[in-house]
Every structure is written in structure tokens, then in C-alpha cells.
Amino acid sequence: MTESKTKTTNPKATAAMIFGLISIVLFLLPFVSIVLAIAAIVVGVMALRDMRTSGEKGRTYAMTGIITGVIGLVIPAALGILAYLFFTNQSAVLFV
After folding, report:
1. What is the pLDDT of residue 86?
2. Domain range spanning residue 57?
3. What is the pLDDT of residue 95?
4. What is the pLDDT of residues 57-73, one digit of tens each?
5. CB 25 within 8 Å of CB 49
6. Helix, strand, or coil here: 57?
7. Do the domain assignments include residue 3?
8. In a domain, 64, yes or no
9. What is the dihedral of CA 31, 36, 41, 47, to 10 degrees?
């Protein structure tokens, strides 16, 4: 009998990627997007740490989760800043 030693994908890495992608899709709901983005970053880092010791696959998924999490934080922040400048009549500062 031969044992098949296939490495499984780390579930935290998969969760990080899903959280990150959903945070980008839901950028018009900033509170939801920011929470999901932070979760993607935290879970992605946890997955990378776990994979060092366990030897599981999923490094690409974890990195995707971290990167999309950062993007999911930047988009609502940028939109919030632009909305603040637009509604407080400070938009001239952008074009000077």
C-alpha cells in the first residue's frame, strides 16, 4: 500500500482570498468593506505563518488575500476623502 501524500490547501489562505475579493466588490458599503479587508489581511498573515510549519499549499491564495485586503482598504478610504473634499467645498485644493 502506498500512501498518497498530497498537500492540502490551507483553509485560512482560501478564506483570506475570499474576504479580500469580497471587500473589493463591496466597496460601496465602506464599513463592510473595511471589516472584510482587515479580516483578509489578518487571516492571510495567519495562513502564511501556519504554512511555514505545516507545509500546506496556498501561499498564492494568502498573498492574494493580503493584497486584495489592502486594496479593499484603500478604495473606501480614497472615496471617503474625495467625498469629504467634494462636500466641504475643498475640491479646489485637488486642482491647485
Report:
1. 83
2. 11-90
3. 56
4. 999 999 999 999 999 99
5. no
6. strand
7. no
8. yes
9. 160
44 contacts: CB under 8 Å, gap ≥ 6: 12, 13, 16, 17, 20, 62, 63, 65, 66, 69
C-alpha cell at 6: 498530497
In the structure, what pLDDT confidence band is assigned to residue 94 with cuts at 50, 70 and 90?
low
With respect to residue 76, please indicate whether it lies within any of the assigned structural domains.
Answer: yes
Cell of 37: 479587508
Q: Which three cell numbers stand for residue 26?
A: 463591496
- 3-45 pLDDT per residue, tens: 456 789 999 999 999 999 999 999 889 899 999 999 999 999 9
**What is the percentage of the chain residues whose pLDDT exceeds 70?**
85
Q: How many helices (H) and strands (E) does the chain have?
A: 4, 0
If one counts the domains in the chain, the total is: 1
Residue 22 resides in a domain: yes
The conformation of residue 58, written as its DSSP 8-state character, comes to -
